[in-house]
Amino acid sequence: MGRMRKLLIPGVDKKLLVKDALKVMPDLTRRRFISGGVSLGALTLLTGCDVVDSDSADQFLTQVSKFNDAVQAWIFNPDTLAPTYPESMITKPFPFNAYYDLDDAPEIEGKDWKLDVRGLVDNKKSWTLDELYKLPQVKQVTRHICVEGWSAIGSWTGTPLRDFLKLIGADTKAKYVWFQCADKDGYNSPLDMRSALHPQTQMTFKFADEILPRAYGYPMKIRVPTKLGFKNPKYVVSMEVTNDYKGGYWEDQGYNSFSGS
Amino acid sequence: MSSLAAAEDVTQQEPAKVIQPAWVRAMHWTNAVAMIVMIMSGWQIYNASPLFGFTFPRSITLGGWLAGGLLWHFAAMWLLMVNGLVYLITGFATGRFRRKLFPITPTGVISDVKAALTFRLAHDDLSKYNYVQKLLYAGIIVVGIVIVLSGLSIWKPVQLQWLTALFGGYDTARYVHFICMASIVAFLVIHVVLALLVPKSLRAMIIGR
User: Fold this and answer.
1) Residue B66, φ and ψ in degrees, nearest 5
2) In this complex, how many residue pairs, one in chain A and one in chain B, have their CB atoms less than 8 Å apart?
3) Where are the domains of chain A?
4) pTM of this prediction?
């Protein structure tokens, strides 16, 4: 980016210019441009690093990661439940984790919030929080495992996603449920349908028996104990049932997309 | 000079004796590459959530950042696992492990350790391992198996939860994985130093004799 800035015309608002240029670009290029800025190759180039981190290595590793997606989907047993723990083992305080500080976490007004439902579903009606709270809920005490390596046990209460998908008449033969979130610079994540239909996959409204606090994703988080933490989106605003792979915030930057645990 | 020439004559008279068969050499160097990639990318992954009060310097990690480290780690694991599995099967099937690594007796180990520390350990016949070598080579194979299993248990703590439980749970399995890495690095340092001190052993691992 540094080199690019020098090339720009003095007196022109550089940020606005970049913004306009991005708008003109077709969608696919835009995504590649944005994700390319933080990809493995670009980062190592910035730090002036090794020969192995070239573009071809990058491409090869991406291919292996796709192969690993397939292997993990094959290993995934929809009947295998994530281990559950006694409440005494809950990690206190449960860590807040995001690509921003807690102060920058979305502040959502519950009464103004609606869950948008899109894609391959019979009933595309939006859901208010009160309507969602009326659905049957279950509690789980499971281990949240972060891609960084740390883990923490938490208590989440909410509606099994598979019950909700049934309720809205979702095409459960579709490949993904794609979630979009209210995080400041956006957040989204695709969830493969078999994981979405796993009995422990949950639309979470409560943490430790209290209404989900802002730190943990108010008003709704998707809890997937069979996935790494970044596949558990918070501040969810919409879900789309789709056959298209729409990418995700971290997935586009190189984290393995299946990331099953 | 004359003694050197005489030694060369002896080796030239029996050129047929292969110390390291081709399959051992191929798998040894494949494993070396896989291990180094696994260790350096593993250090990158470690840095994202350190278990101890230190991180590995950027210059010796692979991948540039966490996602890059993970991509390398989960690519090289295939090379490590497939090569390692074929090595174990061949090692048992050909009887190489039985012939070269066993038996390991405590008295043998103690006397050879003493000899090694006083620099009196003989290396006349490279096709025969002394007790220190036997112990280290057998030991590092076990560590290799444990590091792969603990790695799998960290990768799949739900699907392979019985394995994760065997290692004392997810968090403990991370420590097991780390300690195995540290053991392999320690082995690697000794292994390379000794190979350089006895260059003909290095030659045997490259050209076979």
Assistant:
1) -55, -50
2) 86
3) 2-73, 77-253
4) 0.84
